[in-house]
Amino acid sequence: MKDLKKRVIQSGLAKVCSQVANSALRLGYIAAMARLLHPEDFGLVAMVIAVTSFYELFTTAGLLLAAVQSSRITEDQISTLFWVNLLVGAVLFLVCIATAPVLVSFYGEPRLFWITMTVGFGFLFNAACAQHSALLQRELRYVELSIIETTSLVVGCGIGVSLAASGFGYWGLVGSTIATPAITGALLWARTGWVPGLPRRHADVRSLLGFGGTVTLNNLIVHLAYNLDKLLIGRVWGPGALGIYGTAYQLANAPTRDAMGAIGVVAFAALARLQEEPARLKSYFLRGFALVVSATMPITLFAAVFADDIVLFLLGPKWAQAATVYRLLAPTILVFSIINPTGWLLQSVGLQGRSLRIACAIAPLAVTGFVLGLPYGPAGVALGFSVAMTLWLVPHVFWCLHGTAVRPYEILIAALPPFAASVAAVGLAYGVAELWLDQLPVPARLALAGMAMGGTYLAVLMFAMDQKNFYWGLLRDIRGASPSGSVAP
User: Fold this and answer.
1) Which of 72, 121, 160, 396 is the most exposed place for a label (fewest CB within 10 A)?
2) Where are the alpha helices (DSSP H) in 402-439?
3) The whole model's pTM is what?
4) Can you tell me the distance from the alpha carbon of 179 to that of 158, in angstroms, rounded to the nearest whole number?
């Protein structure tokens, strides 16, 4: 692709803007729902999502990524993949229905029956639009995808808040969960205008199905490893404790999740186009990695230090216990910001088998952390998770990068400046808050501490860490990639 650089920059900028808007929407939604509902309401839905999110991994069967990663794909192949996705979605819908009475029995909570039945419709909606999304991603049309995602989220959150405010309780959370994928699917169909043809027996999708199956199995193992904590807490400690833990986890994971969402999907699509150009692939990967850690590290450290104020401001006083969990999860989130981008590299160059083996190593380590911490409640599980992931960091990096164009020391070089700048900035912000802002209202204290940290972080990163050339060069590229500009060489 001759204009790959321009399209990657435009797509990345669109995704970043979209994710910033979506993050604000999600935080506003959580804050509104936290005041309208109780932790138990969140816990009831989390009990179901802990199981159905496992099923969700099979919705696209890895075929969306397979369609994006493939260097060439035909109309017959993508139509056949659409029908495979739809069949899988229908099966998962039936499995979800069959699961409803099992969850009622497992948790001893009859309200879970209709929640589970309703959530099942989401599998049909997601399956029906997976290949439409793949078509846009292959062409790096992330501006359109970003508009669709944000529009769907706005409407879905609005439906959820309206239901909760009208006295429907936890059904507000369920309604939002179903409405968002339904609206996304309708908009994707309308925007692409693509209507799938009939499936073809000779469409030669075997390699695509193999890639998708390996990716799905990898995601399955990782998902089980990272979500067994919620299942265990719900079973042992009940919906109230799970509501506290699950909501704290959502808030703590937001920086990494949103940065990955903004940069990761664009990076994967771009890296897949550069499989035969190792030097360019390495350059694109390291720049994307640097952007992720630069965005997530300062936010994660700030959130850990000011967890009490953040929880009080966003969720209210009845959620005070979530602050401890939020803070204890911070090391896990920092590790995620470093190890998750390596998945882009492995899968984009067809090393999904290695990624699967790594997932098999992570799973028992994470589960051990959960089990050891479970007797001590949500805070103990959070601590066990963070200890396990911190121990895993170095082996993960060396294993992932072995034999690739990227060397482990290059990851360290990329991550060290934002980490050092973040530590310095959060230390100053904490000192300012303790000395001069202690008597201020929570919103003002957070705003002023945030400004102190943000200014310090940028100054240290750009000048003390000598990163100004990298970021100013990126700004020049963004300006050059604007519709009225020319692409930087």
Assistant:
1) 72
2) 408-436
3) 0.66
4) 10
